[in-house]
Amino acid sequence: MTDFEAIDALLASAARDRAPLPSAQERRRLREGLHLSRAQLAAALGVSASTVGGWESGREPSGEVREKYAYFLEGARTKLNAPAPAGTDGPADGPADEPTEADQLVDTDDVGELASPQPCVLCGQPARYEVEGFPQHLDPAQCGATESEQIITPARTEKPTPQPAPQQPLAPAKQTGRMAEHGVKVVPVGRRAQAASDIPDLIGSAVTAALADHRGDVEAATAALVKRAIPDAMALLDHTRKGGRYDIVAHPWLPDILRKQTARGADQIWEARPKWTRLELPAGPHEVTALDINGAYLSALKTHLPIGQLEHSTGNHHDKRRAGVHLITPPAWDHETVLPNPIGQRDEPGPLWVTEPTLRLLLRLSGPKYGLCDPPEIHESWTSGATEGLLEKFRITLKEARDRAISESDDVTLEYVKQMYSKFVSTLGESNYNRELYRTDWMHLIRSQAFANLWTKAFKAYDEGLMLVRAMGTDELHLIGDWRAVFPEGRGVTEVKVKDVYTIGSDQNHAGNTPGSAS
């Protein structure tokens, strides 16, 4: 190839890489106009559903996949603009009928209207529709699920019209029994019901395959699973989001406060990581137990997460239906001698950007139940409609796999699951290892929730009469006293285990001294 031919090839490649694409809104409109799901399009293009979601939120594909995506979008536009066949009610681009409630809220053809309301398989309250043969609410605002799952309804903003109760309601227990007679155990999956036998064990299958590939070599299989922990976690997230009430916005625009100020620097969000040591102890020797909080980041996946793109607001007001980051002036903390400051150890006074879990913790502590401080002053916020259950199925799946691994002494699965949830959290920000989901706000919120959870456990110990000596990071509490009367011991996520036991003698009245060896 001559120099000029090489340049021509380079120019052709560059032109191909920048195949023109319509706006993000138009991309979604074209896909939905053909009644295609993100998963269907993703399978055709060889990417994940969350990647397609990122493109529909403004992220730009590159390389060969961009060319394929542009080809699909052009074909979709041509198909949607084609004249209607003879015998149809009108042209393809004519005014459409007003969508029904089922059309607005469920992406499935197997939806029907019931002759009379029947108990919803998710909440037991009267429902007017059935999905795949099971009575179910299509609007989460009408479903008697948890309050956190009812915060935002994507397709409807008006208040739902109360539905009349059925004249002869069928109790949920009888409904479940009728299904059991046919040998089908029904479990809720977002808006839809699914047979439990149809839910694959992705974690168990991956571990079995890895052990088979490495002929039972536990170390080699574990190393292989750890290497693929991030893509496997994203695949599990996609699977657990099937039928979910809300689409995850995978690559939203983020304000500058959530972007690194320098290449190796940090953004402006303060996560309130505890790093506290009690300055003085009563005279005499004290036995201190260092406790390890199990699965801190796994438990923290249950937190209020913003669903869509963050929106700016000002004023000293907190909307519990939204979540994000907030610029606050924190209150004075007068309990440093016995309890860590809930915003962590901070050297500089004045306003700072904190996350939703930190703000909610401060608001609780300033309320009548605790009365430990004044309310924080909120100056401005970046928030979106939120739900506490966005990652709940993902969290439960990982927790159940972890519990099973512990009960079966399965160290391979235990390490694999740990790497999945810890790396999932750590790569949500500006990471080259996870390009499927870019939510720096989520990363900060989940970490802060872990810190807030630790602070809550520290306060519980203090409130139960234990002496708190240290609180560190996400999972470490040092206590004096009968901690077993307060915390259950074990390896479960609701339990604690002993990390160290040491003694501070009568000549070591400062708890800040380096702990001695375990006794």
Task: Describe the fold and architecture.
The structure is a single chain. The protein has about 525 residues and is of the alpha+beta class. It is about 35% helix and about 15% strand. It contains 15 helices and 16 strands. It has helices at about 5-15, 25-35, 40-45, 50-55, 65-80, 100-105, 170-180, 200-215, 220-225, 230-240, 295-300, 355-365, 390-405, 410-425, 440-465; strands spanning about 110-120, 125-130, 135, 185-190, 190-195, 270, 275, 285-295, 305, 310-315, 320-330, 350-355, 375-385, 465-470, 475-480, 495-505. The strands form four sheets. Strands 6, 9, 10, 11, 12 and 13 form a six-stranded mixed β-sheet that branches. Strands 7-14-15-8-16 form a five-stranded antiparallel β-sheet, with helices on one face. Strands 1-2-3 form a three-stranded antiparallel β-sheet, with no helix packed on it. A hairpin with a 2-residue loop joins strand 2 and strand 3. Helix 2 (about 25-35) packs across helix 5, helix 12 (about 355-365) runs parallel beside helix 15 and helix 13 packs antiparallel against helix 14. The protein is globular, with a radius of gyration of 27 Å.
